[in-house]
Every structure is written in structure tokens, then in C-alpha cells.
Amino acid sequence: MDTLDLQLKAYIEGHRQEMLALWEEIVDTESGPKQLDGVDRVGDILQRELEKAGAAVRRVPVDHAGDLIVGDWNPGSEARPVVFMGHMDTVFPAGEAAKNPFRVDAAGNAHGPGVLDMKAGLVIGLYALKALQSIGWKKYPIRFLGIPDEETLHMFSNAKTLIAQEAAGAAAAFNFEPGPVSDRLVIGRYGGGPVSITVHGVAAHSGSAPEKGRSAVLEAAHKILKLEAANDIPRGKLINCGAVEGGIGENTIPDFCKIRIGIRYRNQSIGDEIFALLRQVTEERTVEGTWAELDVSRVMACMETTDGVRKLYDHVADTGEALGLGRIPGIQVGGLSDAGITIGAGVPTLCGMGVRGEGAHTDREYAQVESLYERCLLAAAAVRTL
User: Fold this and answer.
1) Which H/E stretch holds residue 221?
2) At 73, is the pLDDT very low, low, confident or very high (cuts 50, 70, 90)?
3) Could you read off the pLDDT of 90-133 as tens digits, one per residue?
4) CB 386, CB 312: distance < 8 Å
5) DSSP string of 357-380?
6) What is the rounded CA–CA span in Å between residue 18 and residue 292?
7) What is the reported pLDDT for 19?
8) At a CB cut-off of 8 Å and minimum separation 6, what does 25 contact?
């Protein structure tokens, strides 16, 4: 570990209690999917801390969500920025923090709603920036993005477009999503999410005039068979027709049926296959007189393991070794994240830069406190030597 890394470590070690207190404040500030005011209160905390560090903060309005927080630190540099990013929302309903408040147990694990996914990541990004400031480092600007609605996959908002715009042209991006207890960095994520095909038919009395009907349910059944037949799980291609809604009763030929589908794809090439099939199945019809419409608005892009990602990962893994943290392996995971958005914008991105833990999205969620400080040092030291 060289002198500057020792200085970064000394800063982080000297601010452990501050970091822990900020983590507690953010976790106990509820920001569930229906608590847009809570998301904005987390944004207020980020704005406060970013401004303390000398960043210029913009609050970008997002349709049907809290504000996107954009903090620009060292904006005078002519270099391309490094993006630090994390989401401010959780999956938990109102009142969860009162039942399960932030606390640290005797084993050194922190508990609370969103403690792992991913409020710790916000603290890591903030203090990595502050640690770099403490040693006078100004090689790159840093753009901090506090994202308001990742847990709902931005399905009601224009956040995906805004994130891509704010990240465009960056030299690198670090997404502070959590990592597994086994200590891994995420170099690839599946793409996918919920899609739907809505089939329309012609209603008719099934006893007195069945010939006048055009069954949307029957047409949906044909479409489901075609979609499910295309699954190739070992290859990383999933099309799961997981729920069907249609019809009003046995005595009526149904004029409506909605197929709710979960898709996952290992890379964009496989994703393109799925989208082409979805369009084909939507446009084709077996039952004459029916028609259908496709909704893919909630899909999250995959995080491709590009050459830029591999180069960034190698740099961070080398940094971890130099810091005495060991060479942290890189993995691909099935879960979705906003790293796919920045990859799509052409920015080399590393994900899973947050704390280690287990139980995300449950009341058993926990994070290893020591990993908060380790990952903060890793991020700061990796950015310093980019």
C-alpha cells in the first residue's frame, strides 16, 4: 500500500463513526416504492453531504418518482468524469423502519430495511469522494447519481433516459449495489424484467351465439406455447409466462386476455432474440379476429461484460490486492441493476461495489459493517489510480 492509499485509509478509519451514523440516518429514513417523499428525504441527506464536500448539486425532476440527485465534484477538470451511482429507494412498505430499525449486532452485522440493498452503497460513494478530497486528488471530476426508483425498474418514470444522459461520456462508472458474503465484484448482469402481451378478441354468449365470439384466451394460449417453447435456460434465455388474466366466466367468449411474462437474457444478442420473438408472437394470430399489443417498457438492459468492463475490473482487482484485500473475483449474476443503463450509454461499469451481506428484500436483510469501510477504501484507491 503506497503513501496516498495509506492516507485514504487513515481518512476512512478516522471517520468510521460518521459513516455508521450516516448509514443509520439513511436506513431509518423510509423510502419505499410508494414513499416518494421519503425518497426525496434521502435525496436531501445526499445533497447535504455532497454540498459539504464542495459538490454542486442539481435535483432533476423525474416523472412519477422522487428527484434524481446529481452531484458534480471537481467540475473544473477537463477530464471525463467518473460516475458514482446508487439508488435511494427500497422495496419495503411504510412502517418497516419502526419495526426493524437500523442496529448493529454482536457479530458486526448491520440490520434494517435497505441496509444492504442499497443504502450502504450511498455512504460508500459519498465517503470515497470525501476521502479523495482529503488527499487533494483532482485528476477526474466525480458525478454522483442518487437514483430514485430502481426497485420498481423505473416502470412509471423516465429515469432510465435521464440516467443515461447524465452518465454519457464518463470514463467509468461504479455502481454501489451490494455484493455477496463470499466477496465478489459484479462484471455482468442479466437483462430483462416484466413484459406483457394483451390480447383482444370479440365477446359473445357461449351458449346462444358462440360463433360470433373470438376468444382472446384461446389466442393467448397459442402465444404462450410458442413463447415457452423458446426457453433455453442453460444458454441464459428465459421466457416465463408467469400469470394470465382474462375472461369473465364460462358463459362468455372472452374478449380480453393479458399474459404477464418475465424475461431474462445473459447478453444483448440473446435479448434481441427474445424481443424479436415477442414481436413476432404479438403480431401473429391463430384465432382470426383477434389482435394483440406488446409492452416492454419495464425491461432493464443487461450489463454486458465488455472489454471496457474487463479492463476496469482488472484495475479494481489489482487495487484490492495492493490494499491487502486479496484479488476479488468477478462474477455474472441474474439480478437486474442500473449498471445496464450505463453500459448501454457506452460507459465501462463495475457493479456490486457495495457492502457484503445477505437477505436483500426481506426482513432478514443484513450487511457486514466492516465491508462498508473496505469497499470505501477500494473505491477511493481504484479511482485515484485510474
Assistant:
1) helix 216-228
2) very high
3) 999 999 999 999 999 999 999 999 999 999 999 999 999 999 99
4) no
5) EE-TTSTT-EEEHHHHHHHHHHHH
6) 55
7) 98
8) 45
All 3 cell numbers of residue 46?
445526499
Q: What is the pLDDT of residues 183-238, one digit of tens each?
A: 999 999 999 999 999 999 999 999 999 999 999 999 999 999 999 999 999 999 99
User: Cα(308)–Cα(302) distance, rounded to whole angstroms?
Assistant: 15
Residue found by looking up cell 429515469 in the block: 159
Residue tagged 446508487 (cell numbers): 86
What's the gap between Cα 303 and its chain centre?
A: 10
Are 127 and 21 spatial neighbours (Cβ–Cβ below 8 Å)? Answer: no
**One-letter amino acid for residue 222 of the chain:** H
Phi-psi bin for 303: left (phi > 0), alpha (psi -120 to 50), beta?
A: beta
Query: How long is the chain?
Result: 386
Type of residue numbered 125: G
Instruction: Kindly list the structural domains of the chain, giving each domain's residue range(s) and its CATH number in brackets, ordered by start.
Output: 3-190+302-384 (3.40.630.10), 191-295 (3.30.70.360)
From residue 260, alpha-carbon distances to 28, 193, 194, 334 in Å are 34, 11, 7, 19
Q: Hey, which bits of 67-125 come out as E strands?
A: 68-73, 82-87, 103-104, 109-111
Give the Å distances, CA to CA, from 216 to 34, 220, 255, 294, 350. Answer: 33, 6, 5, 14, 44
Taking each helix axis as running N to C, give the angle between helix 307-322 and helix 369-384, from 0 to 180 degrees, rounded to the nearest 10. 110
